[in-house]
Amino acid sequence: MVTVFRSGDDLVRQTPAFYVNATKRLDLQLHRAYVYAEKHFGGQNMYIEEMNKNTRYAEVAMSPSGRGLLRRAPPSTLLPSVRAYPENLVIR
After folding, report:
1. Quick check: is 90 in a domain?
2. Which helix H or strand E contains 83, and what residues bound it?
3. Does any domain span residue 80?
4. Distance between CA atoms of residues 7 and 64, nearest Å
5. Which domain holds residue 51?
6. Is residue 72 part of a domain?
7. What pLDDT digit, counting tens, does each position of 19-76 carry?
8. CA–CA dist 76, 81 (Å, integer)
9. Which has more pLDDT, 61 or 86?
10. What does the alpha-carbon distance between residue 34 and residue 47 come to, in Å, rounded to a whole number?
């Protein structure tokens, strides 16, 4: 098994560099094909905007003041009476 990241923190720490390389590939190898999305959506490019947003979030999350940002509990979307899995699959 190949381990790419040592931990979740390592993954977040490497996110900005990943996006820098991805942007280079989008610009050079794919000849800025994302501009077609900008034309289609009237100037907005949600793909690039989300890449930039994820990069900024990763940078803030790895800063000393943002360390708690990645320690979230997912929201519960099930009613209290609904089981997420069959009871017979629970190992006790």
Report:
1. no
2. none
3. no
4. 17
5. 13-64
6. no
7. 999 999 999 999 999 899 899 989 889 989 999 999 999 999 888 888 778 776 767 7
8. 12
9. 61
10. 8
